[in-house]
Design a protein that fits this description.
The structure holds two protein chains of two kinds.
Chain A lengths: L1 H24 L18 E4 L4 E3 L8 E6 L4 H17 L7 E6 L4 H11 L4 E4 L3 H5 L7 E5 L5 E6 L4 H14 L5
Parallel strand pairs in A: 3-4, 4-5
Antiparallel strand pairs in A: 1-2, 1-5, 3-6, 6-7
Chain B lengths: L12 H10 L1 H12 L2 H15 L1 H13 L2 H12 L3 H15 L8 H7 L2 H17 L5 H29 L1
The chains are: A alpha/beta, B mainly alpha.
Chain lengths: 179, 167
């Protein structure tokens, strides 16, 4: 019985490995979680261009939170694509809002990166509270909050434009937030 | 005495690993008596990272090609941090266990085996959601983690009692 259980565990790991390979071959596992997500932790943060961002005030439409920092190479490589997604979301037919949450706590560094990349999306300056609430251990880290204020998807690491847009569209449709 | 394992013969790798799951009391007693192998859990940790984070490794590789070796290596290292909580948990469990068991017992090795039920729970959960095609929700993930931790704690306790009894 011991040996059977041991082989079962090893077989499970092997099966997981094979399944992941198969899914990678089909474009990877969809990132959107089930509809019954946990409530997204509320937070407030200063915006780079003045004013404040308050997650609870965004209830009623999906919010995409992209955690990044100017010292993070993958973040800087990903941000131009995120900017294009943000511009798409501004067009009619979309209700989701995208906010890039800078985790450095350094306004000048964030502003420099925004200027270098020519970003026009909203940039929030996190003092550490949001990162802690969302258990952001590595960046880039993307969280999609649905219209009801629940976490609909969490994407660790870099995401392509298509992946992110697909996930956002699915959340918009699923929560009925798309017009 | 188990089928295929004559009395007195040492447990094989699959028997040590599987025994912690299905026969924890007798298996932990034998592990505490000297049959524990530190490398067992090390191999399982590596297997868990490779099997569970394959998509992240694929991303790291694509980053090497698209952006550069530095960023790819950064992503690779970040992927390995997924097991940091597990490793820290094993270390803490080993430290606490060392206070309750005889000095001759390899407390850290024994505590590492208590992680195996947690690994089994994670693998079952990962297989379920991977087969379904979507990642778990935060709530589902927390439930799976809680079950895994509870099972590991029970196994840890069994191991501690077995080690004390064997003294």
């Amino acid at each position: 019985m011991r040996r059977v259980a041991g082989w079962a565990l090893l077989a499970g790991l092997a099966a997981l490995f094979v399944l992941r390979i198969v899914q990678l071959g089909h474009g990877g596992m969809p990132k959107v979680a089930t509809a019954s997500g946990s409530p997204a932790p509320d937070f407030e943060a200063r915006l780079l261009d003045g004013g404040r961002f308050h997650l609870a005030a965004e209830r009623g439409h999906p919010v995409v939170l992209v955690f990044w920092a100017s010292w993070c190479g993958p973040c800087m490589a990903e941000l131009p694509g995120i900017e294009r997604v943000a511009q798409i979301l501004r067009k009619p037919g979309h209700t989701a809002n995208l906010v890039a949450v800078n985790t450095e706590g350094d306004r000048d560094a964030a502003a420099g990166a925004v200027q270098r990349l020519g970003l026009s999306m909203r940039v929030a300056l996190d003092d550490g509270g949001a990162s802690a609430s969302y258990h952001v251990r590595t960046i880039p880290h993307t969280v999609i909050v649905d219209a009801a204020g629940k976490i609909a998807a969490v994407m660790r690491g870099m995401s392509t434009e298509d992946e992110l847009l697909r996930a956002i569209l699915e959340v918009e449709e699923r929560t009925g937030a798309s017009p | 005495m188990t089928a295929g394992n004559p009395k007195g013969a040492r447990l094989a790798f699959t028997e040590r690993v599987g025994g912690v799951l299905v026969a924890p009391r007798s298996t932990m007693a034998r592990l505490a008596a000297g049959e524990a192998r530190a490398s067992d859990v090390m191999w399982l940790v590596v297997a868990r990272v490779v099997a569970g984070e394959l998509d992240q490794f694929a991303r790291a590789w694509s980053m090497v090609r698209q952006i550069g070796v530095g960023f790819g290596a950064q992503q690779m290292l970040a992927t390995f941090t997924v097991v940091l909580p597990d490793v820290c948990g094993i270390l803490v469990a080993g430290m606490v266990l060392s206070f309750f068991v005889p000095k001759t017992t390899r407390a850290f090795d024994l505590a590492a085996y208590a992680w195996i039920p947690y690994l089994a729970t994670m693998v079952i959960g990962a297989l379920y959601f991977t087969a379904r095609g979507y990642p778990p929700s935060v709530r589902a993930s927390n439930i799976v983690t809680a079950v895994g931790v509870a099972w590991a704690v029970v196994t840890w306790t069994v191991g501690m009692l077995a080690a004390r009894r064997s003294a």
